[in-house]
Design brief:
This protein has 252 residues and is an alpha/beta fold. Helices cover 48% and strands 15% of the residues. The structure holds nicotinamide-adenine-dinucleotide (NAD).
């Protein structure tokens, strides 16, 4: 349990890594604003956090819509208090080999990950600057190192790393750290959708992926939530601009 109450915003928190991170930060003692485009599912995340004894607010917004982002952050300030933790986790995939990749596939992925994280961070950081304390955690991926069929996603996830390092340089003087987590293979709806798209049964897809992971298991959403909890801890204030691969080995 954290000694200090820090309001956290977690984007893409309707399911998967975002939902697990919301549960974990709530367990750590932080009120959590769970934000997602999926209203019904993000409401369910908030209810689940509250059922576990945490404090949660569900916010429906598209992270790539500047006006919606501004309104969402103001709603958090109003209902929970000024945010001092931001987890940029919302994401999508539109996988395809480059020669088949449409402009829409490219734009959609770059827009949600990069523009979304930029807009959310710009809106949230002013509250962190005012407080002289903040923690920003951005979700990258081992795909940042290159992945067949994911030119758009790889570019976005490598972009998240550069974005994070610039935030660390600009915001450090205000007591704000920015770090990046690059998950490897995590069992979630996102990876289940990939298996489906490839026409491979989930169990086989998971087994094949696990056989290439040094610790010989799939990552769980809680593994990523644990890394987020570490970065946002009061005692992690000297750790900034870093990329932590959470992949059961040096990379996924
Ligand atoms: P997921 O698909 O289970 O959940 C992503 C959530 O983001 C969904 O609830 C979705 O509604 C939300 N979202 C999408 N677009 C949005 C938008 N414009 N505005 C607000 N919310 C939006 O995915 P996940 O597996 O939990 O992944 C979470 C993050 O971790 C993503 O950034 C993903 O790229 C990254 N990641 C996942 C894996 C993995 O193996 N699952 C590996 C590396 C990185």
């Amino acid at each position: 349990m954290s000694e200090t109450r820090r309001v956290a915003i977690i984007t893409g928190a309707a399911r998967g890594i975002g939902a697990a991170t919301a549960q974990r930060l709530a367990q750590d003692g932080h009120p959590v604003a769970v934000l997602d485009v999926d209203e019904a599912a993000v409401n369910a995340t908030a209810e689940a956090v509250i059922a576990q004894g945490g404090q949660a607010l569900a916010v429906t917004a598209d992270v790539s819509d500047a006006a919606a982002v501004e309104a969402a952050v103001e709603r958090v300030v109003d209902k929970l208090g000024a945010p001092s933790i931001l987890v940029n986790n919302a994401g999508i995939t539109r996988d395809n080999l480059l020669f088949k990749m449409s402009e829409d596939d490219w734009d959609a992925v770059l827009t949600v990950h990069l523009r979304g994280s930029f807009l959310m961070t710009r809106a949230a950081q002013r509250h962190m600057v005012d407080a002289g304390w903040g923690r920003i955690v951005n979700l990258s991926s081992t795909s940042a190192l290159g992945n067949r069929g994911q030119a758009n996603y790889s570019a976005a996830k490598a972009g998240m790393q550069g974005f994070t390092k610039s935030l660390a340089l600009e915001l450090g003087r205000f007591g704000i750290t920015a770090n990046c987590i690059a998950p490897g293979f995590i069992s979630s709806e996102m990876t289940k959708a990939t298996a489906k798209r490839l026409g491979v049964p989930w169990e086989k897809y998971e087994q094949d992926r696990v056989s290439a992971i040094p610790v010989l298991r799939a990552g769980q959403t809680e593994d990523i939530a644990h890394a987020v909890s570490f970065f946002v801890d009061e005692r992690s204030g000297f750790i900034s601009g870093q990329v932590l691969y959470v992949a059961g080995g040096p990379r996924g």
